Structure formats: structure tokens, C-alpha cells
Amino acid sequence: MEARAAKRLAQTLVIDKLPRAQARHDAASRVGANPCFRGTREAILEEISTWLDDPSAPPIFWLSGMAGVGKSTIAHTIAEQEDRKHRLGASFFFSRDEADRRNPHLVYPTIAFQLAGFDSSLREPITQALEQDADLGHSVMKRQFEQLIAGPLEKFKGTTRTILFVLDALDECSPASGAIEILARWAFELPKISNRVGVMLRVLVTSRPELHIHDQFQLSALRLISQSFVLHDIEKSVVKADIQLFLTGRLADLAILHRVAQPWPTASEISALASSSENLFILASTTVNFIGGAKGGRSLQHRLDQILRPDSSMQTSAFAQLDALYLCVLEAAENDLEETLPCAKATFRLVLETIVLLLDPLPPTSLAGLLSLHPDDVLTFLQDLRSILVIPASSDSAEPVRFFHPSFYDFITTPGRQSGSFFIPTTSGHTRLAKLCLKTMHMLLRKDPCSVGNPWSFNMDITDLQKRLERAAPNQLRYSCRFFCLHISLSAPGDESLEQLLESFCKSNLLTWLEMMSLLGDVDGAINSIQLLTSWCHNSSTVKKTTADLVHDAYRVLLQYQSPLRLSAGHLYSTVLSFAPVCSLTKQYASQLHVPYVLRGRPAKWDANLITADSQGSLLALTFFPDGTRIATGDNCGRISVWSSSTGAEVFSIGPQDDFVRQCHLDISGDGSRIASLVKSWTELQLNVWDASTGSCIWRLRVPDPGESKGSIAFSADGQKLLYLSSYGAFVRLNSATGSILSGHRLPVERAGCRGISNCGSVVAIQDDKSLKIWEVSEDETITLIQPLLPDYLQTNDIRIKQIFLLHNQRILALSSSDRLDHAPTTVTLWDYQSGLEFIRITLPQYAKAVAICKENKRLAIGNLNAPMEIWDLETGILSVQLAAYTSTRICAAAFSPTEMIIASVDNSSAVRTWNISAIHSRVNLSNSETDMGSCGSVSASRSGNDVITTYSGSKLVRIWNISARTCLELNVPKLGGSAKMSPNGLYFVCCTTDGWLGLGWDLFETRSLQCLYSWSPAGELSNSFAVFSEDSRLIAVTGGESWDEVLEVLDIHRREKLWAVKIGSMISGIAFLPNGTSLLAVDVGGYEIIDITGNTDRKSFPRSELDPENLIFLKLGGIFPDGSQFLLIGPARDSARSSYAVNINDSAHITEYVESSHVFQIFETLSGHEIIFLVHDQVGHLYKRGKDFRQFLCWLPPAWRFMNGKIPAVWRGSYLIIGLYNGEIGVIDVDALSCDGLR
After folding, report:
1. Which residue, 464, 683, 1207, 1234, shows the most beta carbons closer than 10 Å to its own?
2. What is the pTM (predicted TM-score) of this model?
3. What's the pLDDT at 470?
4. What percent of the chain shows pLDDT beyond 90?
């Protein structure tokens, strides 16, 4: 028994950590909610009960009706009834007035919490799920449902055969997409779970008949598995009879309580009240509450008379009786208050207005804090409003003050309703609330509010974070942080005092607000808020430019640095202020920078990049949803993710799968309801269709063709069919809802190459050997072969088409090249395949890796291997813009938004980005690069790291940097053909020269004068060139010769003469001088050699037999230990992991392997000559210093700074990490400043 109790206690402690709303039918937040009065609503209650017990009934019951007809009371009654029968699994009563109760992300954790208490067989799997992922309660809704609801229910072993879930007022779920997700999820999963478990799972849903919910029940799969009942369609006489019964019973109870002589009220008065209720139970309920609030028996009759007194001026509104009742309540409360507190009218209305316009209700203490009142005074002002407000019993209660029914808000804020002097104009009211929020934040916000002390700490690692937040962030501060921007956006423009408060906030509290939002785990809310504020400032003619600039900068910071800010609030002071462009925000808050560790490389201004969001894998594909609100991506783990295009937040993620994915193709149905993915792994090709709302897999098909390289997919125009075209000519139509094959054709091709399929599948094309074949597909599924006419350029024999894109109006766009290598120049050709008429031809200097065409076929986006993304005008053939001026990463895929104002891209830094290209519509140049340097080809630095040399792809310029002096010199090397190396003392550098494809030799320069001191050409060709200086900078060794028969030469720099040359006879992968200065290490495919360079050229050869033979050709020399005892070989990256080998120079059998799951760059430094220290960064840019027995977090790297296993040139010399950026700049990080940070 003790063991069982201990186990249950342990489970309870785990489950208690679930974030949840107080939304159960009997929760404290619903105080005042009651079941149906006895004898009322019997018919509908009987119908729902019958549905519950009928095994043949559909699993979902939708009870709809207009506001005030009693839906929630019926739901409450059913929940109570089934709870007594132990058949209520969970209930969630939504409320638009409470943030937690309208938040869809809290629905499944709240239900899971209740399920854990419902049955022990559910508690166990829920506990296990939370133990495996403690952050599950904050995960995307799909994962929450799978792990917390579906998984546990499938393990249910209880005795009950029916489990009911009640979802009340679903229309009050916000945003509306959350309600759609919930309905779609239950509709898709409920029948499957019921069948597997053998238990009737039932869901009772109540809501107003809002369009988004109505459409789900009438147009989606819900229509087939649901039963509907429209509550306001019940015969009026039946409803009136129920209301009369309710009034009779409740008023009789009041008469007894107040000792009023019976009978009271009279039958005629009851009938009159029932008639005036207009079939709205809320009106009858409010009437009883108002009369019951009287002080004494005589007052009961007085209040009854007030309600029954006719007022002809209030009979014009459709809600005349309800308006009259609400006005009566307010007037009575105000008059009673005036009798006891003569000057209280203004404060009474202030409190009332605040409660009405709050976007999330507050408890008395917090309400008082916001208004600078005493909590007891708040309750005093509200004491006579208990018929329309739910008011806590004491001022220190945590329960909020809220409306009894949402119709009161409509009454008091809608022009034309009969609210009289109590009418609240919302614009001025929101202005006042915005000021209160700004004042509250000014008083309560401060840097490091939770007293963490360490800005590098991740939020999740802060001990007792929630307890610290309880002390640092009272409810009124949390409310102000979350909603001040929304209040401002709803305010009247031109309010001088509001703009002054906003200016003060931006200059003093902007960063502390962002910090608090990160600690509260609401970065998405911060993005949405600042977006509203940015628009408001933009539309206001009176807001100061300094204020608008600070707001704009905060918006850009949130979009581009949201990934680190989600993890750590301290990143504001350690990362944002270090890496963000020079702007008003970084200038205003420069003094708050924690450690000035970024010495060079910050952009001078914001570029067109809007969103930057880190993903979990290497991204291969992306596409916009038809409405432009979301983006779908696919990665190398088979994971399909959906992102918000406005905030960058991950909406949900599907997968990953077990096998490594090589290729991925995505398409979205025209209505945005389905996602199709074609995924190629090492072992199979898989076609999947997913529900775009829930992420559930609708169907999966494994394509039985091991030879398939990559196919193409597209939804038909109506979304009913999915079209699949394989690279070998199979063209298949499938039912997009079921996956069943409707028809299939084998197109006659022999040696299929690239292929294309138009957006709606009406045209397909395949490159068959050297000919292009096109088929037009009619609506009756007839396929007609069209002999296309090619422009003259593409008829040349040595031209190879690599990519095909089928546009409208019989136009086709092809990317072609005369070389089979991917790095060869590419030609883009647009022509009419019926006539052969060529419209546009664009020549690109490099291979186009990513290509996207906008919906109207007017613009083309191209991502090259070593160049920024370019956007071309397909009507003129003119380059419109170059993007990515500050990124060195390779664009892997791109897509235009439907409006063509935004383009999204993914690159090999695993980041999802969006770019604002709206300016190109007005012919404004968006290019931000100040040079045409191209991507950085190499970086080399002196021993101290102070002197740096960089080369650039496609350029003959080299740049020589002095870090401490902050200078940069340029030198044109006409025959520059590769990398350049800086000597350890920084006095010399050497450049590889070439005459084009083959190497010529080397040029040695003096750094200070930039004079060429010596030029020479080793025997043979420099096909695999290396150069290295000795530690004293006196000697330089270079390689030359054929790839598999290379030569080493050593030059004495001071004497300007060659000392010797030796033939290696194999392909060299690295050379280095040993610390003794008399020997040279040469690593090649077969092993390594140690060569005496003092004159006798003695050689010692060692094989690499102990290393992985598959990687011999790929192992690179990382460096040599200072004591000369070992050297390091760096292996290739394998699925985001990399092995490195420390080899004993005198005994090649003595090898130590280092495996790093993150992106290892190379050996940089050693301690005492024996310990290796790496700089590594993980998938999302966290930079670490790693030794054998330690791992120290340093900082977060933006995507442009991630060296990614050498794909971006970088070195660590002295205290500096130096990274080659795209825009001709270098990024410099002072690693020692980070390592020595006393707070670590």
C-alpha cells in the first residue's frame, strides 16, 4: 500500500506541472454557474442522454444557438450528470473573457490533467509522456494530443464503456484557427481510438453558429460523424414554459430567504417576466440575480417593479428587455453607492469601464494595482453589480472579476443600444487603459527581474522560475506586458499624453519588456503585439520618429532573434545588442550590453530579411499556403513543419521518420486543407498526404520503385486529386482524400532526366535523353503528346536541361548548362513550347540551386551556390534585386508568397527566413551589399589573430585586416586563383595564382607594404594547393603537381630561395610544420609522412590503416599539438555528426577518436600540449568551447556566422574567432572575453 501511495504521489507531482486552465465545469473560475433548473430543458437533456447511450449514434454532438439561449447551462447539466455516473472524462468551458480559457494550446493539457484523475490506467501513460518530455504541455497541439490524449486513451483499461468530453462555447476559443484544429483533430482521431479501445468516446460541443465552426460541421468530415441540434429553433412556447418554471422556483426561494409573505410574486408578474425574457435564459437569470441583490423584502418588490415598469423609449432595440434590465441594474448600483459614498460616481464608472475593456479579467488585487486603488475599495464599488458580474468574495481572492454573460459587453459598448450615460466609447477607453499599462510597466519592470544574475542562463534552467516570476511579475504587470500594444492599437490617434508615455517606455523599458515576455514564455505574443504597435506608429502622423524607429527596431529584433529569445531572456543583453544591426535600439541601449565580444561584422542597417527562425534539421523544401499565412517545410529527417509567416512560430511539426531523407518535395491543396509530401530516403520513396490543420497523416503510400531518384507532385485545381510524375515516366492520379489510385499511365521515355508538372497538373514534361517531351492532360484524363519547339540555343548538342518549370500560356522555363558539373554556369530560358519563340534568356555565372516562380509567373527567384538570392523580372529579363547581403549560407529552396510581397527561403544553416520584397513593385532597389565581393572563399590569420587575410569567390581582390587597428586594405592580385595564407607573425602572406582552370604558382607578399616579394611555380599543376608557414615565419611550404602525384616545396622567405622539393606520390590533404621547426608533416590518402627539412630530406612514412578506410580521402589535417606529439585529422560530417582523430606522430596505431554530435569545425588550441579544445556549434547556432572533459557555452551565432563544418570559412587564432561573411566583411568574436566572463 505504501509503495502504491508513493507511486501515486510521484505521478501527481509530475502531472501537477502541466500548464492548464481553470476550465472544468465545476472550476472556481465558473463560480455562479449552475445546472438547468429542475424540470426545465427536459427534451434537449433527454436527447443528449439518448445520444450518449446509443452505440450506433455518431461520436460528436453539436449544440448550437444564439447568445443567451442556455447552451452553457445545458452543457454544465450534462457534465454534472455524467460526472456522477463516472463517465465524464473531461470538460473544458471556453470563455473569451479569460486568456487561459480561450487559449487553444491549454485545451489538451487541461483535458489530460482531468483524464489523469479519471482513471489510473490513464494516469500512468500521461505521467510517462511527461517524464519523457517535461515540456510537452507547451508543445504544438498535434504533439499534445498524440502524447497526452490519444496515446493514453489507447491504453485505457477502466470498466466504463463510455467516456464523455464536454467542450462548451467553442466559438470563444481564440484564435478561431484553434477551434478548427480542435474539431478537425477530434473528428479524425476519435473514431480510430474508439475502435481500437472498444470504448464509446463521445464529445459534446456547444457554440454559437459562427461561420468557421458551422463550416466545419457542414463541409468537412465532421458532417459524417456528428449530430446537430439548434437550440434557438425550439418552439417558443416550450422555452417560455421552461423560463416561467425557472422564475417561479428561483423567486420563491428568494421570498423564503427574505421572509416575504406568500404568494410572491403573483402569477401575472411571473408571466410578465417570462414574456419579457424573449426566450433568453440569460435575461431570466439576470433578472433573478438583480432582484436577489436587494437588501430586504421590501426592496425585492421594488426591484421587481423596476423591471416590470414599461419604458416606451427602450422598445426599439431587438434587445430592448435585456437592455432595460442591464440599465436598471447599473442605475440602482450607482444610486445605492451615491447614498453611502457621495463622490464615488466617477470612480465607480472608472472601475466599471476598466472591467468591461480588459482583454483578460483580473482579480481584485490586480485590478486595484492597475487603477492605483485599494482592493477593498474595488469590491465596495462593485458590490451591487453581482447580478451582471461574477465577483470574488474577498479582495485577496485569485479569482478574476468577470461578466456573468458576454451580452453585457455588447450592451454597454455598442452604439444604439439603450445603455444611456453608461455607454462606454471603446477608443477613448482603450486609450486610458493603454496609459495605465504603460505606467504600470514603468513602475514595475526592471532588468533581470528574477535575479538570475547570469544572462547566459537558459530560461528552462533557472531554478524555481515560476516562483520567481510570482514575486517579480504581479498580474497587473503581466497583463500590461501582454496587452498594452493591443490597447494602443485600439486607441484614438493623436493623444499627446499617450504618445509621451510611449516615448518614455521605448527609451527606458523596451528591453526589459522583451526580457519579461521571454521569461513568461510568450515571445509569439510579443511579436504579435509589437507588430500591432508598429502599424499604429506608421499610421500616426503625430508619433515622434524616434519612438517609431525604436518600435520598428524592436519588431525586427523579435523577428530575427526569436530563436535565442525563446530560450533565454538574457540573450537580449548578450546576443541582440551584439549582433543586431546598428540602429536606434542598439544605440539607445548600448550601455546595457553585457560583454562586448563582437568586435566586427555587425550589419550597418536592417536588410530585407524579416523572419529568421531556427529549425530542427537541414531543410530541403518549402512552400507557402495559398492564403499566405503559413509556410510548410521539409527536412532531412522526414519532418514536415508548418510555420506562421507573420511571426515565424512553428505551428506544428510532423515526424521525424527513422530513415535519413535525401530529397523532399511539397505541395499544398488550393483550399489549404492538405499537405502532400514526396520524400526520398536511402531505402524508399514515400508519398504522404497530411491534414494541414492537425498534422495528422491522412494516408501514406510507399512507391515500389527502388530506382526512382526524384518525382514531382501537384494537387489538381479542385484539390480532389493528387498527381504524381516519376523521373522514369510514370504518371499517376490519386484520390487526395483516400490515396486510392484513380488512373495511371506509363509515358514513353527511354533515358529520363529532369521532369516538371504544372501547378494544377494540366501539363507534364520530361527530358528524355537529349529531347524534351511534353504531354497535355485534359479534364477527362486524356493525355496528348505535344512535340515542343525549342529555341535555337537549346538545340545545341552539348546543352543539357537540368530543371523544367511549366508556366501558363504554353510557356516553359528551363535551366540548362553545357557542363554536367553542378558548379558550371547556368542559362535560364523562357519560351513558348508551341511556337519555339524565346522570350527571355538569362546567363548565371554559377549553378542555380534553388528556383522559385511567383504565382503570376512574372518573377523568378534564384539561389546560387556562392551568391545571394536573386530576383529576376521575367517580363524584361532584368535583375530586380539581390537579397541575403549578410548571409554566407547556401539557399536550398525558395518560394513566393501569394501576394508576391514576401519570399521565403531555407538554407544550409537550418534557418527559415522571409524577405520583404514589396519595394520591387515600385522599382526600389533592395540590394544591401555595398560590394560585389561574392562569398568569402578563405580566411587566414596570424598567430595572435590580429592580422587577417580573406579571399572571395569570383574576385581578384584580397583584403588584409588589422583587428586592433580596425583597418582594412585591399590588394588586386590579377592571377589570384584560390586561397591565401597569413604568416604566424602577420608580416607576410602568400596567394595561390592561376591562369584559369589550372594552377600556376604562388605569390609571396609583405603585409605592411603589400609588395610582392617572390613568385614561383612548382612543377606540374596546382590542382590541390596547400600552403603553410613555419611557426617562426621564416619558411613556407607549398604543394604542387598532379592530384595523385604531388610535390612539396619549401621556400626560405628571408633569402627568397627554394630550399628543396620532394615528391609525395599521392594526393595531399594537408601539410604543417612541426613545432621543432626542422620537420614537415604531410598527410595524404595513404597515410602521413614526416620529412626532415634541414637539408637531407629524411622521410618517415606511416599508413592510416587504423582509421576508417571509407573516409581516407576525406580526412583533413586539423592541426598539430604544440609539443609535436600528436596531430589531428578531421573527418567528414555524417548526419550532423563528425569524428576527429588525434594521432600519435611516432605511432600511428595510437589513435584517440573524438565524436561530436554538433558541427565541429577544427582543432584550434591545446592546453599544456596535450588536450584538444574545439569550437563547435549545434543545429540552432549555440557556440561552445569543448574539451575532453568539459563543454562551455559561449554565445548564440546568427545563421550568417555559422561555419557549419567549414562550409563558411572561419579560423580561431589567439583570442579571436574570425568568420568570412558574404558582404565582403569578416565577423570577429573575442572568445577569451566570453570564456572569462565571471558570470559563467
Report:
1. 1234
2. 0.79
3. 93
4. 35
Spell out the long-range contacts of 417-424 with Cβ–Cβ below 8 A and sequence spacing 24 or more: 417/317, 417/319, 417/323, 418/313, 418/314, 418/317, 418/320, 418/323, 418/324, 418/327, 419/323, 419/326, 419/327, 419/330, 420/327, 422/327, 422/330, 422/349, 422/352, 424/352, 424/353, 424/356, 424/357
DSSP notation for 167-188 = EE-GGG-SSHHHHHHHHHHHHH
Structure confidence by residue, pLDDT tens digits, 790-828: 887 777 767 778 888 888 888 888 888 876 555 567 888
Q: Would you tell me the crossing angle of helices 475-489 and 510-519 to the nearest 10 degrees?
A: 120
CA pair distance 991, 1004, nearest whole angstrom: 7
Q: In whole angstroms, what is the distance from residue 339 CA to residue 346 CA?
A: 14
Task: Answer whether 280's CB lies under 8 Å from 324's CB.
Answer: no
Q: Contact 367/352 with Cβ under 8 angstroms?
A: no
pLDDT tens digit string along 468-510?
A: 999 999 999 999 999 999 999 999 888 999 999 999 999 999 9
Q: Would the pLDDT of 424 be above 60? A: yes
- The model's confidence at residue 929, banded by pLDDT at 50, 70 and 90, is very low
Q: How far is CA 50 from CA 45, 46, 81, 478, 609, in A?
A: 9, 6, 13, 46, 58
CA atoms within 13 A on the CB side of 582: 6
Give 839's Cβ-side CA count (13 Å radius).
21
pLDDT-derived band at 387, boundaries 50, 70, 90? confident
Whether the per-residue pLDDT at 871 is higher than 80: the answer is: yes
The listed range with the strongest mean pLDDT (215-219, 298-302, 968-972, 999-1003) is 968-972
b/e 257-266 (16+ beta carbons within 10 angstroms → b): ebebeeebbe
- Give 958-964's long-range contacts (Cβ < 8 A, gap of 24+): 958/989, 958/991, 959/1224, 959/1226, 960/989, 960/1007, 960/1010, 961/600, 961/1226, 963/599, 963/600, 963/1216, 963/1218, 963/1228
Q: How many residues does the chain have?
A: 1240
**Bond prior to 265 in cis (omega within 30° of 0):** yes
Q: Which residues, including other chains, have CB under 8 Å from residue 1109's CB and lie 6 or more apart?
A: none
Return the percent helix, strand and coil in the chain, to nearest 5.
Answer: 30, 30, 35
pLDDT of residue 11: 86
**pLDDT tens digit sequence for 672-694:** 989 999 988 877 888 999 988 87
Query: Which strands, in side-by-side order, build the sheet including 752-757?
Result: 752-757, 763-768, 771-777, 783-786
| Cell 519563340 sits on residue | 837
Gap between the terminal Cα atoms of the chain: 46
DSSP string, 786-852: E-PPPPGGGGSTT-EEEEEEE-STTEEEEEEESSSSTTS-EEEEEEETTT--EEEEEEESS-EEEEE
β-pair partners for 1016 = 1002
pLDDT given at position 259: 78
Look at residue 726 and tell me whether its pLDDT is greater than 90.
Answer: no
Given the C-alpha cell 540551386, which residue does it identify?
A: 849
Q: Which of 89, 97, 16 is nearest to 52 (CA)?
A: 89
Q: Torsions phi, psi of 696, nearest 5?
A: -70, 145
122-125 LR contacts (CB < 8 Å, sep 24+):
122/152, 122/153, 122/155, 122/156, 122/158, 123/8, 123/11, 123/15, 124/11, 124/155, 125/151, 125/152, 125/155
For every residue of 720-747, DSSP letters joined together read SEEEEE-TTSEEEEEETTT--EEEEEE-
pLDDT reading at 1046 higher than 80: no
Q: Give the pLDDT confidence score for residue 1114 in this predicted structure.
A: 64
Residue 1145 is predicted with a pLDDT of 81
- Contact call for residues 817 and 800 (beta carbons, < 8 A): yes
- Is residue 694 classed as helix, strand or coil in its secondary structure? coil
Q: Which residues of 107-127 are buried (b: 16+ CB within 10 A; e: fewer)?
A: bbbbbbbbbbebbeebbbbbb
